[in-house]
Amino acid sequence: MSSSYTVVDLFCGAGGLSEGFRQAGFKVLAGADNDPDAMATYARNFPEAQSITGDIRTPSVKGRILEAARKADFLMGGPPCQAFSQVRNHTRMIDDPRNALYREFVDILGKVQPSAFLVENVTGMDQMGVRQQIEADLSLEGEYTVRSQVVDAADFGVPQTRKRLLFLGVKTSTRLQPPILAGSEATHAITLARLTGAHRPQYQLAIHGGLQNILAKEALANPDDVAVVSASDAISDLAGLQIGNRTDELTYDGLPPPNTAYQRMMREGAGLFVSNVQVPRLNPDTRLRLLDIPPGGNYRDLQEQLTDRYLTGHKWGQSNGTGKLSRKHFYAYRRLHPDIWAWTLNTKADSVYHYSVPRALSVREFARIQSFPDRFVFTSDPRSGMIEGRHDGGPAHSRYRQVGNAVPPLLAKAVASRILAELLSQEFDERSYA
To answer: pLDDT grade, residue 183 (50/70/90)?
Structure first.
């Protein structure tokens, strides 16, 4: 589906929001971010859009953003907000210097005043009690009707629980109301299913009774249902990727055929090749521990002798002097469970391990869990060294970081589809009464 509606994406990263809006039918005019590696990915995947790299506070960069945004029907982005705690000191978030990027978004919104907008961020804002402040800032003294809501990506066909706080606004003069996303589009599966059982020897999926819960269980068990998607639904066709593989592109002919409707959907439009399939090397100690942890488990499932700091004589990382693993490291041993969605991914390759093979995931598997289609290729700026805006860690880490920081495209598509339906409905009503 396509429409005449256009969008500009600020603080776009690799482009999760843009991808979802494009899938829903919006035309992406531009994306802007300070990270040159993320913008290299954005430029590769959105050749139809303008890629604006640089600090939004720089006059030349902001000028380019304003020029693009004035042509857009919709403005969106996830501006970082650092100073949550300032509300306790009776200082508004928008006035705190640490929230300069958030203030820039509000300023651009006020200057271009599109038909509608979306701001997304972490739910920590809610916990600090600043939601009402943000709604007031974004309303621009009544120019916009703003509605905030917390949604979970797993309720929209993403094989991952990932909660986001959304602020949707529409011009008050349109008399439209920002849509509620937790309605009929959401499965609410996230509240119904969980893993249970004593830690060893295995975890099992448990779903409470009730019709809606039964439907969620049936959807999880049905490989042809994309409403509720498990980890194995998402990545089982990639289980054979080899540890330490340095080839980042393979032909689909070398992989099993897709096993599920979700995998078929992810492969659509990718052509003959699948990219981002390198798998990190595995420390021998880590392999021994993973073999002892059941799918869905973590460090709590390790036998006592496997909690020693070093097992095979291979010295790695920093020792805490106790001879045991430090608590900080415990969270690196979490394994997916095949029958349920993944927990929230972060930006590091060792934040999650495969459910059936003792290894970390490739960037492509990260992307599948985030609902990026296989045709979406993650890359980095070819320039070497610490160029402006780059995060430390090298190209490989950057790609995991780009995926881990993104908004899942299928969640963005659900938002965009609802907004588009409202805008098209208004168009229809205006033509009917013209």
So the answer is: low
Helix (H, G, I), strand (E, B) or coil at 178: coil
| DSSP H/E element including 27 | strand 27-33
The DSSP secondary structure of 300-321, one letter per residue, reads: GGS-GGGGBS-SSS---S---S
Question: Distance between CA atoms of 418 and 409, rounded to whole angstroms?
Answer: 14
Kindly report the number of other CB atoms within 10 A of residue 323's CB atom.
10
Distance from chain centroid for Cα 140: 28
Q: Is 29 helix (H, G, I), strand (E, B) or coil?
A: strand
How much is the pLDDT for 123? 75
**Domains in the chain: ranges and CATH:** 6-180+408-432 (3.40.50.150)
Kindly tell me the burial class for residue 345, based on how many C-beta atoms sit within 10 Å of its own C-beta (0-12, 13-18, 19 or more). Answer: buried
Span of 29-43, 251-265, 332-346, 398-412 with lowest mean pLDDT: 332-346
Q: Which three-class secondary structure state does DSSP give residue 47?
A: coil
Report the distance separating Cα 432 and Cα 16, nearest Å: 36
| Farthest CA pair distance, the chain | 80
pTM: 0.92
Q: In degrees rounded to 5, what are phi and psi of residue 416?
A: -60, -40
Of 27, 32, 26, 28, give the one whose Cα is nearest residue 13: 32
The answer to whether the bond into 201 is cis (omega within 30° of 0) is: yes
Buried b (16+ CB within 10 A) or exposed e, 171-203: beeeebebbebeeebbbebbebbeeeeeeeeeb
Residue range 128-174, pLDDT digits in tens: 668 888 999 999 999 999 999 999 999 999 999 999 999 999 999 98
DSSP state of 244: T
CA dist 342 and 352 (Å) reads 9
| Residue 363, Ramachandran bin (φ over 0: left; ψ between -120 and 50: alpha; else beta) | alpha
Give residue for tokens 């508004």: 92
What would the mean pLDDT of 360-367 be, rounded to a whole number? 97
Q: What is the DSSP letter of 324?
A: B
- 96/399 Cα distance (integer angstroms): 31
What's the pLDDT tens digit per position in 88-135?
455 677 777 778 899 999 999 999 999 999 999 877 666 566 888 899
Residues 66, 72, 73, 77: is their CA dihedral positive or negative? negative
Backbone angles phi, psi at 341, to 5 degrees: -65, 165
Catalytic residues: 81
Q: Identity (one letter) of the amino acid at 78?
A: G
Distance of CA 144 to the CA centre of its chain: 27
Six-digit token string for 384: 């070497």
pLDDT above 80 for 65: yes
